[in-house]
Specification:
The complex is a heterodimer of chains A (about 350) and B (about 375). Chain A has 13 helices and twelve strands. By secondary structure, chain A is of the alpha/beta class. Chain A has helices at about 65-70, 100-105, 115-120, 125-140, 140-155, 160-165, 175-185, 205-220, 230-240, 255-260, 265-275, 315, 345-349; strands at about 20-30, 35-45, 50-55, 80-90, 90, 110, 190-195, 225-230, 240-245, 250-255, 325, 330-340. By secondary structure, chain B is of the alpha/beta class. Chain B has helices at about 1-10, 30-35, 95-105, 125-135, 155-165, 175-185, 200-210, 230-245, 260-265, 280-285, 290-300, 340-345, 355-360; strands at about 45-60, 65-80, 85-90, 110-115, 120, 135-140, 220, 250-255, 265-270, 275-280, 365-370. In chain B, the strands form two sheets. Chain B has a seven-stranded mixed β-sheet, sandwiched between helices. In chain B, strands 2-1-4-5 form a four-stranded antiparallel β-sheet. The chains are: A alpha/beta (about 350), B alpha/beta (about 375). Chains A and B meet through helix 7, helix 8, helix 9, helix 10 and helix 11 of A and helix 8, helix 9, helix 10 and helix 11 of B.
Chain lengths: ~350, ~375
């Protein structure tokens, strides 16, 4: 956990052992008409090079806001980061100047958004928008930038890239547009990619193509990947480790295989039970009762307590920390944590 | 209309849909009586035959001429039985939502018939049509845009009684609306609230209450849960199942999420580019798919089980869905199909039970529109 290293100015890309990105005790809140909405309430996570971290959560869980804080694209105001640190290669990005952050954003850390159509500029050709990365960050000439754009479009398997480089976003299908977004994120060979629901707007056959491409490119460039999603299926396919978020906190962390087999938080358990399965015809689905909390009035104690089947008095008063989860006999379970007072009962029955 | 003729040979005689017992009503009274007549459970209540919807593409400003057509729905036939749920799955642009609009008579069909209890509703008018509209209701996808933000929940649900006063007399409406709110699991005291005061899941419950208000027999659900979060989705799905049993409803359940469709449906139809690719019971479609498109679709669904990552065969299709304005000749799936041969470009495959499966009498013996139909298990890990 010793991350802060002032001498680490520009470590090489092969640096291993320490995480690429580490978020520590991050808090984000927004001023709204109804009061202060506490979107993120102390999130900790880290990603290493070549690793895929999936951040799983429903709408309003703070998964996207955390990503926006990492990228430095939060609207401030109304947003505010009252507390927290975001280390990228050992440097706290929240303490950097705007200038310094701009050098990292898009260059070292890139983001892929959910809706490719509204993320691309409709009046500029895709070639121009791709080339912008090279012109702005590397001062390339227009001509060279265009050649690079074609190369990138080839890289993400857009057919007839040279012929289509001057086309506009509306001339591409949804899957092709998402490929262009991926190309744009990859342009400067970043160390970390944050993909915020990259396939939610796509059809399932196209989703499979895009996820495959993303995984292939990640392997090739040895990038860190933060995959933000609500889809338990997509997560199972690509993630190495998972962080489950609820009401602005991480409620469970686990390596992917562990999480599905033995969830240690009632919320995760409920989510897994509430999804219909393709390979079997189920009876009635388990439904988590109630609704996700209003972020301006998060319940005291554990935020999940009003919906939790095993809530006790302590859950209504004490906020559970992310407890390390162990085997029944106390044996270590690497990378597992659960923010539930009764994690033992949840995982060991 | 010359456009239409070409597709005719693929549309005539779709086997294995039940025979339509047409009702010839001479007077309006007879027509209304036929609409009101009860249907036994397990009998067909809605029979769709060769339904076609082409949206014209025009060019020119002053003198518009038709330069082509988007063939959104191109000859679809199926039956919906009383008390069952028929799921329709397909990717965006396959025409599944257009089918919903055609059945609701929100769009006028280019050709084809929709028989409701033996009467073609596309040709009905007057009181008989009004009675049909009461019996076929719809639940929309987006609970945010399908509720009027300036009306209270009571008005949104109660408005249906303005048009069909026979269902609830004037003095009784408020009580009836509160009863409906209770049925869908909302607090009846919320009757004076506005849509923005509810969450997405609650709004969808309001949409369902509105669909139920007139005691319909059929509810057409167009992606009713796709805008909802996972935990809330399960609540709404369970509610819909409960209501179906309670009110003996028939659902046409349109969705792109194959897992949800399997969960709720008795039978499933798979659509591709305006045509039905395969139709059968949920076991036939999910465990014994014979159409390559169905197989690809099923194999692409991410399964929430990391252990099946390597065990399951994945068929990754290349390319995108072609434009419905200019669909491929012959089989529409052939441009993305790994089995495609010359025959597929020339002959439109009919939706029928392949002869060799028929003889074997296996679950693979269900209707499929492929020249080279083969059974393949893609859902279960090997």
């Amino acid at each position: 956990m010793t991350i802060i290293d002032e001498t680490a100015e520009s470590p090489g890309p092969q640096e291993t052992g320490r995480p690429l990105l580490e978020v520590r005790d991050l808090h984000v809140e927004f001023s709204t008409r109804d009061g202060v909405a506490k979107a993120v309430n102390g999130v900790n996570y880290s990603v290493a090079a070549g690793e895929t971290l999936a951040v799983l959560g429903e709408s309003g869980s703070g998964k996207s806001v955390t990503a926006q804080a990492i990228m430095g694209i939060l609207d401030m105001p109304p947003g505010r980061i009252p507390k927290g640190e975001i280390f990228f290669r050992g440097q706290d990005m929240l303490k950097m100047s705007g200038e310094e952050r701009r050098k990292i954003r898009g260059n070292r850390i890139a983001m892929i958004f959910q809706d490719a159509l509204s993320s691309l500029n409709p009046v500029l050709s895709v070639g121009y928008q791709l080339g912008e990365m090279f012109r702005v960050h590397q001062g390339m000439s227009k001509k060279d930038a265009k050649a690079k754009s074609i190369e990138l479009m080839d890289r993400v398997k857009i057919p007839a890239a040279a012929a289509r480089v001057n086309d506009y976003p509306h001339q591409f299908s949804g899957g092709m547009r998402q490929r262009i977004m991926i190309a744009m994120a990859l342009a400067l060979e970043p160390d970390l990619i944050i993909a915020d629901e990259p396939t939610t707007a796509l059809d399932v056959t196209v989703q499979a193509q895009v996820m495959d491409l993303l995984a292939e490119l990640q392997r090739e460039y040895h990038m860190g990947l933060i995959l933000i999603t609500h889809d338990l299926g997509v997560v199972a396919d690509v993630a190495d480790k998972i962080a489950v978020m609820y009401a602005g906190r991480i409620v469970e962390t686990a390596p992917v295989h562990e999480l599905y087999k033995r969830p240690a938080h009632p919320y995760t358990k409920g989510l897994l039970d509430s999804i219909p399965r393709l390979d079997q015809k189920g009876q009635e689905l388990y439904a988590i009762k109630g609704l996700p909390p209003n972020l301006t009035r998060i319940p005291s104690g554990c935020a999940f307590n009003p919906r939790c089947p095993q809530a006790q008095d302590v859950c209504r008063t004490d906020i559970p920390l992310l407890f390390p989860v162990t085997e029944r006999d106390g044996g270590e379970l690497v990378g597992r944590g659960s923010a539930c007072h009764f994690w033992k009962e949840t995982i060991h029955g | 209309m010359a456009e239409l003729k070409k597709t005719d040979e693929s549309m005539d005689a779709t086997p294995n849909v039940t025979e339509v017992q047409t009702v010839d009503a001479a007077t309006e009274e007879e027509a209304v009586a036929a609409v009101e007549a009860p249907v036994d459970r397990g009998e067909p209540i809605l029979q769709v035959r060769n339904l076609v919807k082409h949206f014209p593409l025009t060019s020119g400003i002053l003198f518009k001429r038709q330069v082509g057509a988007v063939k959104a729905v191109d000859g679809i036939s199926f039956d919906l039985y009383q008390g069952e749920t028929l799921g329709i799955v397909g990717e965006s642009g396959c025409g599944k939502s257009t089918v919903a609009k055609l059945l609701m008579l929100l769009e006028k069909a280019t050709a084809g018939e929709v028989f409701y209890k033996g009467q073609d509703i596309t040709k009905l008018s007057g009181r008989a049509l009004k009675a049909v509209r009461r019996n076929i209701q719809m639940v929309f996808q987006d609970p945010y845009t399908s509720l009027n933000p300036r009306m209270t929940v009571g008005d949104i649900i109660g408005e249906t009684f303005e048009i069909h006063p026979e269902v609830a007399p004037k003095g009784d409406r408020r009580r009836k609306v509160q009863e409906l709110l209770d049925v869908v699991g909302l607090n009846p005291e919320y009757i004076n609230r506005y849509p923005h005061q509810f969450s997405g899941g609650q709004r969808q419950r309001i949409g369902i209450a509105r669909g139920l208000a007139l005691n319909p027999e059929i509810i057409i659900c167009d992606e009713p849960v796709s805008a909802l979060d996972v935990s809330v989705q399960a609540q709404v799905i369970n509610l819909m199942g409960k209501l179906q049993d309670e009110f003996n409803l028939s659902y046409l359940f349109i969705a792109h999420d194959l897992s949800i469709v399997r969960h709720i449906s008795d039978r499933v139809g798979v659509m591709y580019l305006g045509k039905m690719a395969e139709i059968g019971t949920d076991t036939q479609i999910y465990d014994h798919p014979t159409h390559p498109y169905t197989q690809a679709l099923l194999s692409a669904v991410p399964v929430p089980d990391p252990d099946s990552r390597d065990g399951r065969e994945r068929i990754i299709l290349t390319g995108d869905v072609p434009s419905p304005a200019n669909p491929p000749s012959g089989c529409r799936f052939r441009t993305r199909c790994w089995k495609a041969q010359d025959k597929c470009a020339q002959e439109v495959p009919l939706l029928a039970v392949p002869e060799r499966f028929k003889a074997a009498n296996t679950p693979a013996a269900h209707e499929t529109a492929c020249h080279f139909a083969e059974e393949k298990n893609v859902v279960h890990a090997a």
